[in-house]
Amino acid sequence: MNPGDRVRVDRADRTFEGVALPSSTDDHLVVKLEGGYNVGVDRDAAEVEVLAEDVYEIDGRDSVGSNGDADDDTSEIAFDDDLPTITLVSTGGTIASTVDYRTGAVTAQFDAEDVLRAVPDLAGRANYRGRVVANILSENMEPPLWQELATVVHEEIEAGADGVVVMHGTDTMQYSASALSFMLETPVPIVFTGSQRSADRPSSDNVMNAVCAVEAAKSDCAEVLVCMHGSESDDVCALHRGTRVRKNHTSRRDAFETVGAEPLGTVDYETETVDFRRGYQERDARDLALANDLEADVELLKFTPGMDPAFLDVVEGSAGLILEGTGLGHVHTDLIPRLEELVADGTTVVMTSQCLEGRVCDRVYDTGRDLLEAGVLEAGDTLPGTAKVKLMWALENSDDVAEAMQTSLAGELQERSVPWE
Amino acid sequence: MNPGDRVRVDRADRTFEGVALPSSTDDHLVVKLEGGYNVGVDRDAAEVEVLAEDVYEIDGRDSVGSNGDADDDTSEIAFDDDLPTITLVSTGGTIASTVDYRTGAVTAQFDAEDVLRAVPDLAGRANYRGRVVANILSENMEPPLWQELATVVHEEIEAGADGVVVMHGTDTMQYSASALSFMLETPVPIVFTGSQRSADRPSSDNVMNAVCAVEAAKSDCAEVLVCMHGSESDDVCALHRGTRVRKNHTSRRDAFETVGAEPLGTVDYETETVDFRRGYQERDARDLALANDLEADVELLKFTPGMDPAFLDVVEGSAGLILEGTGLGHVHTDLIPRLEELVADGTTVVMTSQCLEGRVCDRVYDTGRDLLEAGVLEAGDTLPGTAKVKLMWALENSDDVAEAMQTSLAGELQERSVPWE
Questions:
Q1: A61-290 and A298-405: same fold?
Q2: Could you tell me if B174 and B385 are in contact, meaning their C-beta atoms sit under 8 angstroms apart?
Q3: Min CA distance, A360 vs chain B (Å)?
Q4: Count of A–B CB contacts within 8 Å?
Q5: How does DSSP classify residue B56?
Q6: Does A390 touch chain B (CB under 8 A)?
Q7: Is B167 left (phi over 0), alpha (psi -120 to 50) or beta?
Q8: Where do the L-asparaginase N-terminal domain residues begin and end (chains A, B) (predicted)?
Q9: How far apart are CA B70 and CA B77, in angstroms?
Q10: Distance to chain A for B211, nearest Cα, Å
Q11: Do A139 and B363 touch (CB under 8 A)?
Q12: CATH fold group of domain A6-52
């Protein structure tokens, strides 16, 4: 059996028929099924019958090498002078994973080149470069990896990439997209994409999301974007600004939403058209710049009735604290003197709202005014998670952190809406 | 000047013209303006001109006494045998507040009888009883007050109330509504309402919300409901199940939404019609029962990338912990051994998702399975805040807490939706 052959694979009580694809491991074979999705099957436990040889040309397969290692994780595949160059950066997650049939669940396994192999539909749209920054489930993403990711993306743009696609797990994609939004000034698009359903599922979104992300990375919008399904259908992906996006559903393919605004744009899967509905940073309008220092010692606390004040003791001596308060941005008034101590002690304390929509406004009620007097800053309508990432960044990169937290640096704080009436 | 007179009030550079209402304080006079909303004006600083005497009959004003005190905070007003009896329970918040013109902001000031005075539109719809449980801003609401509130509501229903309206600040209304949902089995409606805009604002929602809440309290739905504006217009209020509702906008009047479902029903302000779209507990279907013991030592922690594991040390020895995890319900895998220790140590640990929509499903990915093996329970699609309240309740009132947290007790955990495909 060779890549490109039409095969039938029997494993336990399941049968798959499709085209064999190159696999990144010796343990598994990968079969592209009729519906366009791919399955990985444990080679030892499978019986394979070749139905027809060489029915499908696997683009660039000759130039696809083995898994890259730390010293050699960049390669170019089938270079075409007429096409833009897009770098695929892999961090892991469902989009870069295949099915582990032993346990019935999903483990991360692919690097960027494997993704390209697994998504033949990407071929012909661009010249690709592949970089692997991590191979983790996104719940394990940590601030130092945001820094590394920003460095790699910076290197790739410096090396001439016309756009970057970051393959990322969906669980913490919004945090990483925020981090890169603050760390990089970019003359080209940086597009995060991922997958809510793994490649072995008929409803997998990995092919369409990857294809649309590449189209967005070729577009004129030089911002950090998140590109994920825009509806339950396979028609359009939505393009969200990295600092305003939120995973709002655990499992739906269109789980990602722009909070407090319409998405910045859409990518039509059928026509490959990228449309923008609002203003954006245009390609080449800014020079490339990297500022990826982060203050790690910043925490986020969500206030709920009955919260143990001892959580604030953990923050003592920390550089920063994001509070996710109730409503317009409140906490129990008993906590305010403690917050005042933290501020006096040098901790930058910033208020956001667990409402998600709307802006904190601490001047209306007594509690809010007391919070302001205690030195707590207002983050407007900045999302709590984005505010945490921003504060980590601002503490290392801003001369005036208070001013920075109350100013929009990367679209995270929207223009004041008409207040109240 | 007497209540019912048409008056013009000049204060500083503002002039109000309307009908004088009874005021609960000597310091302020209250004027009902043409638009239907009321303003409170500092009496000392105001010049008052009576334009016409006795133009408006204030229902029940003769029987309205002074502010109730702790020993005498229940009274009945203008009893009509043909009308149902509704108890108004006041806890404070914007709906029970008037404007403090000295500071330009809002301070809580009214008790339930004051609300009735301030909202003459409530007259003629029911016989009212008034109870004051607290006069706090809702960010200061605490679990012991939920217990007291449940006790008072129980007393009122036992005494013959055909429905109860709870006036509550909007910031933590969802938590209190959840608490009463678990604490009370009720044969009559218990309807929370509040106000996003104070009575002095042309856009105030206090009159319509109070009127619709009274209509809902007269309805056939014997559940704990939240009744707030259903749109930006003054046309309908939405009725939300107390355990599925969330304040999703900081300032909009229609800030409250049912998460993961349509609202249970609506109240049409014009026609006074209460409509239900889904099944509900019918009036008198259940006997009245109170179970308001709570375990206070339950915390909620929201996981974000880079979270300090020291927050888990605060939880050591606690009875319960609600985790607000990423996506399907994940945290950094480094935290799992620590969670396992907490569980072994007797802490009930329950996973929810910060996505808000959708259910946690810890069986799909390795991290999730590891969490389950560590003894972490899944809360399905229970909202994180509701899960905290429920765990506080279940630890005192359930023989099998794990079973309780994975079963719907008051509509908080919805039927499993079609998984995945």
A1: yes
A2: yes
A3: 7
A4: 207
A5: S
A6: no
A7: beta
A8: 86-275
A9: 19
A10: 21
A11: no
A12: SH3 type barrels. (2.30.30)
Residues 233-292 of A with CB under 8 A from B: 247-252, 255
Who's near A173: CB < 8 A, 6+ residues apart? A138, A192, A194, A226, A245, A247, A256
Distance of CA A257 to the CA centre of its chain: 13
pLDDT digit string, tens, across residues B118-170: 788 888 899 888 888 888 889 999 999 999 999 999 999 999 999 999 999 99
The CA-CA-CA angle for residues B391, B146, A333, to 5°, reads 100
The answer, for A327 touching chain B at a CB cutoff of 8 Å, is yes
Question: Are the beta carbons of B355 and A170 separated by less than 8 Å?
Answer: no
Check if CATH label 3.10.450.50 holds for domain A298-405. Answer: no
Residue B417 sits at φ, ψ, to 5 deg, of: -75, 165
ipTM of the complex: 0.82
Least CB-CB distance to A326: which of B139, B142, B392? B139
Strands (E), A235-332: 236-241, 245-247, 256-258, 265-268, 274-276, 289-290, 298-302, 320-325
For residue B14, how many other CB atoms are within 10 A of its CB?
A: 11
CATH number, span A61-290: 3.40.50.1170
In sequence order, the 6+-apart residues with CB closer than 8 A to the CB of A418 are none
Dig out the tokens for A152 from the structure: 């790699």
User: Is A340 within 8 Å of chain B by CB?
Assistant: no
Contacting residues of B for A332, CB less than 8 Å apart: 139-140, 142
* B209, B248 Cβ separation under 8 angstroms: no
Bridge partners, residue B357, by sequence:
A249
Active site residues of B: 94, 170-171, 247
Identify the residue whose tokens are 């606690």: B318
Inter-chain contact A311–B307, Cβ cutoff 8 Å? no
pLDDT digits (tens), chain A, 421 positions: 877 788 888 877 677 787 777 665 666 777 766 544 456 677 777 888 998 887 755 543 333 333 333 334 444 455 788 999 999 998 877 766 644 433 344 444 455 566 677 788 888 899 888 888 887 889 999 999 999 999 999 999 999 999 999 999 999 999 999 999 999 999 999 999 999 987 777 788 989 999 999 999 999 999 999 999 999 999 999 999 999 999 999 999 999 999 999 999 999 999 999 999 989 999 999 999 999 999 999 999 999 999 999 999 999 999 999 999 999 999 999 999 999 999 999 999 999 999 999 999 877 777 888 999 999 999 999 999 999 999 999 999 999 999 999 999 999 999 754 333 2
Domain ranges within chain B, ordered by starting residue: 6-52, 61-290, 298-405
Q: Which residue has the tokens 């979104």?
A: A205
DSSP-assigned letters across all residues of A108-143: E---HHHHHHH-GGGTTS-EEEEEES----GGG--H
